[in-house]
Design a protein that fits this description.
Layout (H helix, E strand, L loop, with lengths): L1 H10 L14 H11 L4 H14 L1 H20 L7 E7 L8 E7 L10 E5 L7 H4 E7 L2 E8 L2 E5 L5 E5 L8 H6 L8 E9 L4 E10 L2 E2 L5 H14 L13 E4 L2 E3 L3 H5 L12 E8 L7 E9 L4 H5 L18 H35 L3 H14 L12 H34 L1
Parallel strand pairs: 3-14, 9-11
Antiparallel strand pairs: 1-2, 4-12, 4-13, 5-6, 5-8, 6-7, 8-9, 9-10, 13-14
Helix pairs in contact: 2-12, 10-11, 10-12
Family: Belongs to the snurportin family.
GO cellular component, one term: cytoplasm
Keywords: Cytoplasm, Nucleus, RNA-binding, Transport
């Protein structure tokens, strides 16, 4: 009997460790490993929090140079405009809208300075106590800059796509001379979403307010400052001649309130824009450019599966037709993002090659310089210099490989268990 039990035990072994009835089942261990170890978000969060304490001074100096350089770049009179941009001056009802013509200037200094989120693959244990949820409407991620009695909107690549007056500090002549805190030499930079349906901006975060940088400030303070300022400047949400685009503060609340908030529809009551997703900010994170695990991201239809809470049925209307699980959706999204990043890199390199080709025919001196550039470009660049999204791409590739390994290990475990059951 003992030998029979020993043979039976050996036939059902899935590894060399002795059987333990209190241990977790290997299949479920692989399933939860897929959540806890995907991209090691929990470990990287701790590393980011520790690292930002050490590099607070260096980050502040770096961003200060960016802000000062951008201010000098756009206020120099010798900078020639690249293209014309038209916005609309809003007049009282019954009158026609007069085009507000302005000239755009792209800003290399604003390129890729936005703080990017990561998929919330690993749900933190302190989500209810140390995280803030921010509702993100659908639209274009952009940088809103108010200075020199004007307001400009730039995309993530630093290309200006809109210019208009606003009631932000230094955003218009009316604000400068009517507000005691306004002055034409000030500067305000906001992280925003532009919603095309409502033609409104929704502010996610603050980088600089009236020449006061907030880069080394924690999330709690930055959000408190924004809330207090939007309560003071009520004209920001009202469309007028001096504020043709409404500027709202994106709704935010403690993550613990998410179940009660998402039980009702809509999340954004002002203009009821379509919600793109939910951002989760760690309360202690500083504003840093690039991807960070201290800002998580989930689509509304993923919230029930990932956070185990019930939501209003309206938030489930945007579920993709081929949606199977949050893990597979994230894996597919990361793969598409990696492909787009490669396409952008090739496109940028081709454009640089075309520009170099044109410069060769300008003068003999230009020919010599372009030949030097060509010889330098033939060398393999370092990994960090391939694109501004390289670090984010590396994280995405790690997430894809780990998510795939989780699924393959789970399926192999199932097949191994079925084979053992058949042999027995």
């Amino acid at each position: 009997m003992d030998s029979l039990l020993e043979n039976l035990e050996n036939s059902f072994k899935v590894d060399d460790r002795p059987n333990n009835t209190d241990a977790a089942h290997p299949y479920f261990m692989n399933f939860y490993k897929c959540r806890n170890d995907a991209s090691n978000q929990a470990a990287r969060r701790k590393e980011f929090l520790e690292a930002q304490k050490k590099k607070r001074t260096s980050e502040h100096n770096t961003f200060r140079n960016i802000l000062e350089t951008d201010s000098q770049h756009n206020t120099t009179k010798n900078n020639l405009p690249k293209e014309k941009c038209q916005s609309m001056e809003w007049l009282p009802s019954g009158k026609k809208k007069i085009p507000f013509k302005s000239k755009t200037q792209d800003s290399e200094c604003l390129k890729n300075i936005l703080m990017e989120s990561e998929w919330l693959v690993d749900v933190p244990d302190d989500l209810d106590t140390r995280w803030t949820a921010v509702v993100c409407p659908q639209g274009k991620r952009c940088i809103l800059v108010a200075k020199g009695n004007g307001t400009q909107a730039y995309d993530k690549a630093g290309r200006q796509f809109m210019s208009f007056p606003s009631w932000l500090p230094s955003g218009s002549w009316a604000e400068t001379y009517s507000s005691p805190g306004g002055h034409k030499n000030g500067q305000t930079i906001l992280d925003c979403i532009y919603n095309f349906d409502s033609t409104s901006f929704y502010v996610l975060d603050v980088i600089e307010w009236n020449s006061h940088p907030f880069l080394s400030c924690e999330t709690d303070f930055r959000f408190y400052w924004l809330s207090s300022k939007f309560d003071e400047i009520i004209q920001l949400s009202e469309k007028s001649k001096n504020n043709p685009k409404s500027i709202y503060l994106a709704p935010r609340f403690p993550a613990a309130e998410l179940p009660s908030r998402m039980a009702h529809f809509p999340l954004v009551e002002e203009t009821n824009p379509k919600v793109d997703g939910i951002l989760f900010y760690h309360k202690e994170t500083h504003y840093t450019s690039g991807s960070t695990p201290l800002v998580g991201w989930l689509k509304p239809f993923m919230v029930p599966e990932m956070l185990k809470i019930s939501v209003h049925e309206a938030y489930k209307a945007d579920v993709p037709p081929n949606y199977l699980s949050a893990v597979q959706f994230i894996q597919s999204s990361l793969s598409n993002q990696a492909q787009k990043s490669k396409y952008r890199t090739r496109k940028d390199s081709n454009q640089k090659g075309i520009r170099r080709g044109k410069n060769r025919h300008s003068s003999s001196m230009d020919k010599v310089e372009s030949m030097e550039e060509d010889s330098a470009s033939n060398q393999d660049p370092p990994v960090e210099a391939t694109s501004c999204d390289t670090k984010a791409d590396l994280v995405n590739r790690d997430m894809i490989s780990e998510l795939a390994s989780c699924e393959s290990s789970s399926s192999s475990t199932e097949m191994h268990m079925e084979d053992n059951a058949g042999n027995s």
